[in-house]
Design goal:
The structure is a single chain. This protein is α+β, with helices and mostly antiparallel strands. The chain has two helices and 14 strands, in the order ααββββββββββββββ. Strands 1, 2, 3, 4, 5, 6, 7, 8, 9, 10, 11, 12, 13 and 14 form a 14-stranded antiparallel sheet that branches. A hairpin with a 5-residue loop joins β8 (about 135-145) and β9 (about 150-155). The longest helix is centred in the first third of the chain and has 31 residues, at about 5-35. It is elongated and about 110 Å long.
Length: about 200
């Protein structure tokens, strides 16, 4: 064997050892220096404390069936337990849908509200909108829904757009009719109708 062949064999032998070690060192350098300490995600401690203290559900949805067989679905953007009433949840962007066995539907939406677990009621605060599948649209300032019976009662006066015209009333009550298949609307306290005949 010549000296050149011996030198080549030694070089190959060292290369088999050194090249993998060099590759390992290069990879280690990439992992160590690819991200500097200043690139870390800084989370303010005040925000961490607030998140730990503020228990909140995002996009919750509650559903159930009333005594009369209507299906209730309540959804919201967020919900959190009230500190002074742990059986009550404060709700933001509250929406309630009620599907009656007879096929009629009532949808109630509001900016804020509460779900009271003890009295089994949903309270809508501020501006509230009601829409029925029969073509009625109403706006009022607050209402209460009794979850067991499906009864809906407005807190005060409201404006109604109906298929037959525009109405104003001091209060509206939705209650299930005798057949337990649909809601009856009862307008009280100074009802006024502006009749608009259909052309």
């Amino acid at each position: 064997m010549s000296a050149n062949d011996n030198l080549y064999s030694q070089w190959v032998g060292w290369a088999k050892i050194l090249l993998p070690l060099f590759g390992l060192a290069l990879l280690s350098t990439l992992f160590l220096f690819a991200r500097s300490p200043s690139d870390g995600t800084d989370i303010p401690m005040a925000q961490v404390v607030e998140l730990a203290r503020d228990q909140q559900l995002t996009a919750p949805e509650f559903s159930g069936v009333t005594d009369t067989g209507a299906v209730l679905v309540i959804s919201a953007r967020s919900a959190r337990p009230l500190p002074d009433r742990l059986d009550t949840a404060g709700i933001e962007d509250l929406r309630l849908r009620m599907d009656n066995p007879g096929g009629s539907t009532l949808v109630v939406t509001g900016v804020t509200g509460e779900i009271d677990g003890r009295s089994r009621t949903a309270l809508f605060s501020g501006l509230v909108r009601l829409q029925t599948s029969t073509g009625y649209t109403m706006e009022t300032n607050g209402l209460t829904v009794t979850l067991d019976t499906g009864m809906v009662v407005s807190d005060g006066s409201l404006e109604i757009r109906a298929p037959l015209g525009n109405l104003t009333a001091g209060q509206v009550t939705f209650q299930v009719d005798d057949s337990n298949t649909r809601h009856q609307m009862l307008f009280t306290d100074g009802v006024r109708l502006i009749y608009m005949p259909q052309g």
